[in-house]
Write a structure and sequence with these properties.
alpha/beta, 10 helices, 9 strands, 26% helix, binds ligand FHN, FUC_metazoa-typ, alpha-L-fucosidase activity, glycosidase, GH, EC 3.2.1.51
């Protein structure tokens, strides 16, 4: 397969919708994935979670079926988060799931289950590591390992940490089959780019997995006209949707993926039941696509390995919408029309999809489309929709057609049709 950028990122740009999975020891304290740092838990205070981690209900086949039912085309799961705990059977550390009561390679089971359901698989890997002896304190946040007197003035050898980090990435890209996305997290302050030996790392990765798609959090400037080799294949706005599509300095649109939590936490937080509605998720997905981007929607499974029931129900409702309307998402991107006041357009070649979020009184105004649209059908059921007013004067290939109208969803989103 040609490994040039456009070819490498084609599936990613067409998939549009993925599942993010933040899971690890922090599911036991169930106060989010930063609990160790924010509460300055010492090695001893965090150790019990390692000793008791046993997700007896972990069944990634169920997770994969849920992601597929929701219309997601890929997933990205934490192989190691900032606490340094490895969900995979790394030979470079004992701080791993196979040495907990779980006794399982959780990443191997994940990649196999999601591939079985036809989804592409990605791995999240934290370049920050609060557990490794040779990782320095992070800015003004006390490094938990340095809380203890034993570590206060312990000299570190950061190069040894980088060898470990590179070695683990090599393990992940060697021992788990084809990996479609590598999601690094995150560079900060002057800890960026070559401080991670990023060029060496990316060259090693591409030698092992030439088609892999990499995020932009190793550093560098993905928007540069000539970005660094390690600047990544896609931008990764977090907990927000960009005001418009993302382009580089030359004005060329670049792939991007907004990562958003379904509630308010990445890692499991038992008290956080503040979940976004299916309507919000669908609108967010349509907004991303209308701006030429992807949505990576996060779930945080609990310590037993179960995705919270609220998340399951929301993803199933999103899936019902996708069952009827996925053509207006997959392979679509920004339309060559300005955003209308009643919702958003997405486009795939000569097919325009108009997503009616807010119906006004009377027929939806499409003034000025002056007959460029050949016919209109409701995407959900194929019903003909009479276009009440002339269409906007935009050049569309002759066989373009669009349908407007109201596939009534429980939440009132009307979806267009092609
Ligand atoms: O610190 C992490 C955080 O825990 C989470 O993994 C997010 C996901 O994009 N990334 C970092 C915060 O930007």
């Amino acid at each position: 397969m040609r490994n040039d950028f456009a070819e490498r990122t084609r599936w990613f740009r067409e998939a549009r919708f993925g599942m993010f999975i933040h899971w690890g020891l922090y599911a036991i304290p169930s106060r989010g994935e930063w609990v160790r740092s924010l509460e300055k838990l010492s090695v001893e205070e965090y150790r019990p979670f390692f000793e008791e981690f046993d997700p007896v209900r972990y069944d990634p086949r169920q997770w994969a079926k849920l992601a597929k039912a929701a219309g997601m085309k890929y997933a990205v799961m934490t192989a190691k988060h900032h606490d340094g705990f490895c969900l995979f059977d790394s030979k470079l550390t004992d701080y791993k799931a196979t040495y907990t009561p779980a006794g399982r390679d959780l990443i191997r089971e994940y990649v196999e289950a999601f591939r079985e359901e036809g989804l592409r698989v990605g791995l999240y890997y934290s370049i920050i590591d609060w557990h490794h002896d040779d990782y320095p304190a992070y800015g003004d946040k006390i490094h938990p390992m340095r809380d203890n007197e034993a570590f206060k003035n312990k000299p570190i050898e950061f190069g040894r940490y980088l060898d470990y980090m590179h070695g683990q990435v090599k393990e992940l890209l060697t021992n788990y089959g084809k990996i479609d996305v590598m999601w690094f997290d995150f560079s900060y302050d002057d800890m960026t780019g070559e401080k991670w030996r990023a060029t060496e790392l990316v060259r090693m990765m591409r030698s092992l997995q030439p088609d892999i798609v990499i995020d932009n959090r190793l550093g560098g400037n993905i928007k540069a006209a000539a970005p660094e080799e390690y600047a990544g294949d896609f931008a990764s706005p977090e907990q927000m949707l960009p005001a418009e599509g993302i382009a580089n300095e030359a004005g060329r649109p670049i792939p991007w993926e907004a990562c958003i939590t379904l509630n308010d936490h990445w890692g499991y937080c038992s008290s956080d039941r503040n979940y976004k509605s299916a309507k919000t998720v669908v609108r967010g997905l349509v907004e991303c696509v209308s701006k030429g981007g992807n949505l990576l929607l996060n779930v945080g499974p609990d310590a037993k390995g179960v995705i919270p029931h609220e998340a399951v129900e929301i993803l199933r409702e999103v899936g019902r919408w996708m069952d009827a309307n996925a053509d207006s998402v997959y392979g679509c991107g920004a339309a060559s029309l300005p955003k209308p006041e009643w919702g958003r357009y997405t486009q795939n070649g000569n097919k325009l999809y108009a997503h009616l979020f807010d119906r006004g009184m009377g027929p939806t105004s499409f003034a000025g489309m002056n007959g460029k649209i050949k016919r209109a059908r409701l995407l959900a059921d194929g019903a003909e929709i009479k276009v009440e007013t002339p269409w906007m004067a935009y050049e569309y290939p002759d066989d373009a057609f669009v349908t407007l109208g109201g596939a009534e969803l429980p939440d009132g989103i009307d979806t267009v049709i092609e």
